[in-house]
Design the sequence.
C-alpha cells in the first residue's frame, strides 16, 4: 500500500494511479497527444453508430480484463461520458451498479481523488474573492501555513529560506510542500482501519516535518486535507465567520457548476442511486475524516460533464484563476506537470488535463483535451465500482481518441 508507485501500479488510497512514470507511458502519452494534433478538441463528428460501437468494443475489452483481474469478485459496472463545450456528446452505463439497478449516467459513484479538483477550486475561489483569516490576514497563494495554524513553526514560511521549501497554499495545491503523504507513511498512532476526527488528524499532521529537495513534486493527500482545513479558517468578504469545508463546496462550488448529483461519501444525496462498492480487500483509510479534501466526494457522469463544462467555461473560478489551476505548477516527469488538482501535459498542440481516483471499491478517471488558443475542449470521464481498475486511464484516452476521429 505504501510502496513507491511503479508504472501502471496504483498508489496509496485515494491517490489514483501513476501511469505517467516511465518512458513507455510517456511515449504513449506523446503519441496520444500527437494523434489529437490538428484537431479542434470539441469539433468531433456527430456520435455515430460506428463511434458508439467502437466505444462498446473498447469497454467490453476493458471489462473482460477487469473480470480476469478480479475473478473472485462480483462483476463491476462502468459508466463513461463524453462532453464538449457544446454539451454532452455521449454517455452510457454498463452492467448493474447495484442488484437489479442498471448503471446509468446518473448513477452516483465515489470519485476518489477527483475530489481534489473541487478542493482546489474552493481555495482558488476564496483567493479570488479576497477572503481573509479571522485576524484579517489576506488569503493568497503565498500564504504560509504557519500563519493559519498554531504549532507548525517548524514548517518554513518564507521563500527566502533557500534551503527549504516554504509550506504555502501554492505548494499544497501543487504538491511541492515536501510534507510526507500520511496515507503512504502514517504515524504510529494512526489506525488506517479506524475512524479519525479531523482535529485529531490535523494534530498528527502538524508533527510531520517537510523533507526533500525544494520545489520537488510528491503526490500527497496530506496537502489536500490541509487545504480543506484552510477553507475552514477563511472568511469571505461580508461574512462574519468561516464556512465548513463541506458547506462551502455544497453552498458555493457545487451550485456554481450546476451540480445536482454530487455529494459526500457519508452524506448520500436524497434520491440518489448509488453504486455498490466492490473492494478488493479490507477497506483502509475509508472512514471519516481520512478522506477530507482528498477523496470525500461522490458524483455521477452527468455531473462530471457539468463540472468540466463549468470549469472550462469560467463559471466556477475566474479565467485568471483557471489559468493558475491548469498551469505547470510542478514537474512530475520531463513531460508531465501537476497544476492544482490536475496533471498537465502538452504535446501536438493540445493541452491535456487529467486525474485518476482510487478509493476502496471505486476507481475513476477524468481527462480534458483543450486547444490552447481557443475555447474548444472535449472531456472523457469514466467511473467504475471496484478498485481493481488497472487500465482505466488507457480506456479513457482510447475513448477520447475515438471521439476525435
Sequence:
Amino acid at each position: 500500500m505504501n510502496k513507491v508507485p511503479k508504472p501502471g501500479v496504483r498508489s496509496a488510497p485515494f491517490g489514483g494511479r501513476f501511469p505517467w512514470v516511465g518512458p513507455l507511458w510517456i511515449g504513449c502519452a506523446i503519441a496520444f497527444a500527437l494523434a489529437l494534433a490538428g484537431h479542434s478538441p470539441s469539433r468531433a463528428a456527430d456520435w455515430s453508430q460506428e463511434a458508439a460501437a467502437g466505444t462498446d468494443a473498447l469497454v467490453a475489452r476493458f471489462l473482460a480484463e477487469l473480470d480476469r483481474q478480479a475473478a473472485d469478485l462480483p462483476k463491476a459496472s462502468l459508466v463513461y461520458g463524453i462532453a464538449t463545450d457544446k454539451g454532452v456528446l455521449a454517455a452510457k452505463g454498463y452492467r448493474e451498479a447495484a442488484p437489479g439497478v442498471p448503471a446509468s449516467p446518473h448513477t452516483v459513484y465515489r470519485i476518489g481523488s477527483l475530489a481534489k479538483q473541487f478542493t482546489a477550486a474552493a481555495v482558488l475561489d476564496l483567493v479570488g474573492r479576497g477572503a481573509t483569516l479571522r485576524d484579517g490576514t489576506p488569503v493568497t497563494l503565498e500564504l504560509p501555513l504557519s500563519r493559519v495554524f498554531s504549532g507548525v513553526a517548524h514548517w518554513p514560511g518564507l521563500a527566502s529560506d533557500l534551503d527549504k521549501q516554504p509550506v504555502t497554499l501554492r505548494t499544497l495545491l501543487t504538491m511541492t510542500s515536501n510534507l510526507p503523504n500520511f496515507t503512504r507513511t502514517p504515524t504510529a498512532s494512526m489506525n488506517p482501519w479506524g475512524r479519525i476526527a479531523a482535529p485529531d488528524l490535523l494534530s498528527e499532521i502538524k508533527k510531520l516535518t517537510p523533507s526533500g529537495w525544494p520545489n520537488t513534486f510528491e503526490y500527497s493527500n496530506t496537502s489536500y486535507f490541509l487545504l480543506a482545513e484552510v477553507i475552514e479558517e477563511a472568511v469571505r468578504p461580508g461574512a462574519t465567520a468561516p464556512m465548513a469545508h463541506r458547506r462551502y463546496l455544497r453552498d458555493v462550488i457545487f451550485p456554481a457548476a450546476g451540480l445536482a448529483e454530487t455529494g459526500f461519501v457519508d452524506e448520500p444525496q436524497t434520491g440518489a442511486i448509488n453504486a455498490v462498492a466492490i473492494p478488493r480487500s479490507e477497506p483502509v483509510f475509508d472512514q471519516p475524516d481520512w478522506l477530507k479534501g482528498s477523496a470525500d466526494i461522490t458524483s455521477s457522469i452527468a455531473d462530471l460533464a457539468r463540472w468540466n463544462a463549468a470549469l472550462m467555461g469560467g463559471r466556477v473560478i475566474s479565467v485568471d484563476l483557471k489559468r493558475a489551476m491548469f498551469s505547470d505548477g510542478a514537474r512530475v516527469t520531463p513531460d508531465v506537470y501537476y497544476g492544482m488538482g490536475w496533471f498537465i501535459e502538452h504535446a501536438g498542440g493540445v493541452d491535456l488535463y487529467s486525474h485518476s481516483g482510487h478509493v476502496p471499491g471505486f476507481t475513476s478517471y477524468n481527462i480534458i483535451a483543450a486547444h490552447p488558443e481557443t475555447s474548444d475542449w472535449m472531456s472523457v470521464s469514466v467511473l467504475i465500482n471496484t478498485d481493481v481498475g488497472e487500465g482505466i486511464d488507457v480506456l479513457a484516452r482510447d475513448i477520447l481518441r475515438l471521439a476525435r476521429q
